[in-house]
Specification:
Layout: E1 8-14, E2 19-25, E3 30-38, E4 46-51, E5 59-62, H1 68-81, E6 91-98, E7 109-110, H2 113-121, H3 129-143, E8 149-153, H4 163-166, H5 172-177, H6 187-200, E9 209-215, E10 219-225, E11 228-232, H7 254-261, H8 267-276, H9 279-284, H10 289-297, H11 301-325, E12 330-334, H12 335-340, H13 342-349, H14 361-365, E13 372-373, E14 382-385, H15 390-404
Helix pairs in contact: 1-3, 10-11, 11-13
Bound molecules: adenosine-5'-diphosphate.
Adenosine-5'-diphosphate binds near residues 218 and 289.
């Protein structure tokens, strides 16, 4: 690794109206600053900046921030106040989260005009995410044209899936013409967590098979054999698979024809229904697992049924990926629900003793932000809770790539 290029990496996660960021020092992977700009383009934009290196107070500001360019400049200003300005020679690179890299991007990639053009070409399969990610890249490039910008793709970890898992059973000519296949998402998290799980077991990633359950507001499962993804639950878009906060996950595709033909709904209405008004929220009016648990404790039946549907789907995927892998060393729970909701972990593996899966109630009840095993010592398969860290993974991949290229 070069000593001349600096050791800091700025990680940017640019959404349609938000910009999340973290500045890390890769000498020890420590976080120097983190923050978020929300409601970009509105009168009530909000910037929240946490100066972690100095241990100073969180700074919050409200007022109109017109676009991502203005947002990044505001972030740069905040960082300057901490002596961490983006003009510093200590900054080695900027790492960008990019949601859809299609089949083309299998690795983190240094951004140039051709890379931007390819991310643009993928907009039809990621109409919400890729344009926002590109805005972040363009803005950062304009601000520091001399600095390597690295795109880290949510889909990249899943490009190792065999065709048998990646293809839908439709005419391949039609599928190929429209680039329809199962891409999978949350790849950065699945990569990080599967590796961290192997580490927790004290084994090399090449030697372990892991089922990773990333249960946040969006949720996905993956089957990872020896460090390589062989199946994942999200597909062409993040709609497929598990029951999520507001997404339905799997359903009979004919439900869509039915809603259009019989229900008289437009395609846009159905899209909104399935992506934004379904899942836990659609079932019971809440998408936050904490609130759902509170309602269940109070005897609420709709919340109880929503929980049962969520867990039933989760259990089906554990069984499916067990079969895909043949032998399983660990099932790893991660993200907001996976890391915090002990009842979800308990219910997901309940009755699976025959597969070697169980949780130890005491271990499962412990709250911690450390990776840990919550199954009994004698269990054949480890059940693990492994906090995800997508920013660290993006920074690590970015720094490794920049080091390689210098
Ligand atoms: P995102 O997918 O938006 O990145 P997260 O991974 O942060 O989300 O997960 C957010 C979700 O995690 C919340 O909607 C909530 O359901 C769940 N969650 C967060 N904290 C807890 C907790 N203490 N107990 C149960 N669920 C939690």
């Amino acid at each position: 690794m070069t000593g001349t290029r600096g050791t800091r990496v700025l990680v940017l996660n640019s959404g349609s109206s938000s910009l999340k960021y973290q500045l890390l020092d890769m000498r020890d992977s420590s976080r120097l600053a983190a923050g978020l700009v929300e409601r970009i383009g509105e009168q009530t934009s909000r910037l929240k900046h946490t100066p972690l290196a100095s241990g100073g107070d969180v700074r919050e500001a409200e007022g109109p921030i017109a676009d991502h360019d203005a947002a990044l400049k505001a972030v740069a200003q905040e960082l300057s106040r901490d002596g961490l300005g983006l003009d510093s020679p200590d900054l080695a690179a900027i790492g960008h989260r990019v949601v859809h890299g299609g089949m083309f991007f299998t690795e983190p990639t240094v951004v140039d005009d051709a890379v931007i053009a390819e991310i643009e070409r993928l907009i039809p399969v990621a109409p919400l995410h890729n344009p926002a990610n590109l805005t972040g890249i363009r803005t950062a490039r304009a601000l520091r044209p001399d600095l390597p910008q690295v795109a880290v793709f949510d889909t990249a970890f899943h490009t190792t899936m065999p065709e048998s898992a990646a293809r839908y059973a439709i005419d391949p000519r039609i599928a190929d013409r429209h680039r329809i296949r199962r891409y999978g998402f949350h790849g950065t998290s699945h990569a990080y967590v599967s590796r961290a799980t192997a580490e927790l077991l004290g084994r090399a990633p090449e030697d372990v098979n892991v089922i990773v359950l990333h249960l946040g507001n969006g949720a996905s499962a993956s089957a990872v054999r020896g460090g390589r993804c062989v199946d994942t639950s999200m597909g062409l878009t993040p709609l497929e698979g598990l029951v999520m906060g507001t997404r339905s996950g799997d359903l009979d595709p004919a439900v869509i024809f039915h809603l259009a033909r019989v229900g008289g709904m437009s395609m846009d209405e159905i899209d909104t229904l399935l992506n934004k008004r379904s899942g836990l929220f659609g079932l019971c009016g809440d998408n936050d697992m904490r609130e759902i648990r509170r309602r269940i404790d109070g005897g609420d039946e709709a919340a109880s049924l929503a929980f049962d549907i969520y867990v039933h789907r989760l259990k089906k995927y554990i069984g499916a990926y067990y079969a895909v892998l043949g032998t399983v060393d660990a099932v790893a729970f991660t993200a907001g629900v996976g890391e915090n909701a002990a009842p979800v972990r308990e219910a997901a593996v309940a009755g699976l003793e025959g597969l070697g899966l169980a949780v130890d109630p005491e271990r499962n009840a412990v709250r911690s932000d450390r990776p840990r095993i919550v199954s009994p010592d004698a269990a054949r398969v480890a059940v693990a809770v492994v906090p995800t860290d997508e920013e660290l993974e993006i920074a690590t991949q970015t720094y490794a790539l920049v080091g390689k290229n210098t």
